[in-house]
């Protein structure tokens, strides 16, 4: 079953280069994301590179790994989560005042059966979890905006 595309965007009063610097340093992901506690890149930021991640939601902790799927400097960064096949991306677009940053979670081919089971049993079900993800995306973008504008 295909999952919906989840998306959030924000306008930032900072140049694209500054926003890219923040977004493309994956080690900073825990500063932005309410759920990510660690994102450790293995090697250079390039397609095919991997990351090791640790996530937390309340009392739940779980590891994931990602493969970088797209790197277009100052335009787009995307990575696929191995455990559930979702693709997360950040897209940057210049605006008159600075940068529009869009965060998206793609799951057009659905998620894995294991992921769906865990979300259903431990994360309050798909609807609740996806709403929480959108809230987390908005929180992440707000934190990136704050850092870029300071």
Task: Give, in order, the helices and strands.
Answer: EHHEEEEEEHH
Structural class of the secondary elements? alpha+beta
* Arithmetic mean of pLDDT: 90
CATH topology-level fold name: Alpha-D-Glucose-1,6-Bisphosphate, Chain A, domain 4
CATH homologous superfamily assignment:
START domain
Q: How many domain regions?
A: 1
Major sheet description: 7 strands, antiparallel
Low-confidence stretches: none
Terminal-residue CA separation:
42 Å
| Strand order, sheet with most strands | 1-7-6-5-4-3-2
Number of helices: 4
Compute the gyration radius: what is it? 15 Å
- Name the shape in a single word: globular
Number of strands: 7
Fraction of residues in H or I helices? 25-40%
| CATH architecture type | 2-Layer Sandwich
CATH class label: Alpha Beta
Strand content: 35-45%
Description:
There is one protein chain. By secondary structure, this protein is of the alpha+beta class. It has a single domain (6-149), classed as Alpha-D-Glucose-1,6-Bisphosphate, Chain A, domain 4, CATH 3.30.530.20. Helices cover 31% and strands 38% of the residues. The protein contains 4 helices and 7 strands, in the order βααββββββαα. The chain has a 7-stranded antiparallel β-sheet with strand order 1-7-6-5-4-3-2. Helix 1 packs across helix 4 (126-149). The protein is globular and about 45 Å long. InterPro entries: Polyketide_cyclase/dehydratase (IPR019587), START-like_dom_sf (IPR023393). It holds the Pfam family Polyketide_cyc2. It comes from Mycolicibacterium austroafricanum (Mycobacterium austroafricanum).
């Amino acid at each position: 079953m295909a999952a919906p595309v989840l998306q959030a965007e924000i306008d930032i009063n900072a140049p694209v280069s500054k926003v890219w610097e923040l977004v493309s340093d994956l080690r900073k992901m825990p500063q932005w994301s309410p759920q990510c506690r660690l994102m450790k890149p293995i090697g250079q930021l390039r397609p095919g590179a991997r990351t090791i991640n640790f996530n937390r939601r309340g009392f739940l902790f779980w590891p994931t790994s990602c493969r970088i799927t797209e790197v277009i400097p100052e335009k787009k960064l995307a990575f696929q989560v191995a455990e559930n096949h979702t693709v997360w991306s950040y897209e940057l677009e210049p605006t008159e005042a600075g940068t529009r940053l869009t965060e998206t979670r793609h799951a057009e081919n659905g998620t894995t059966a294991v992921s769906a089971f865990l979300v259903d049993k431990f994360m309050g079900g798909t609807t609740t979890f996806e709403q929480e993800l959108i809230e987390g995306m908005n929180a992440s973008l707000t934190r990136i905006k704050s850092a870029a504008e300071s």
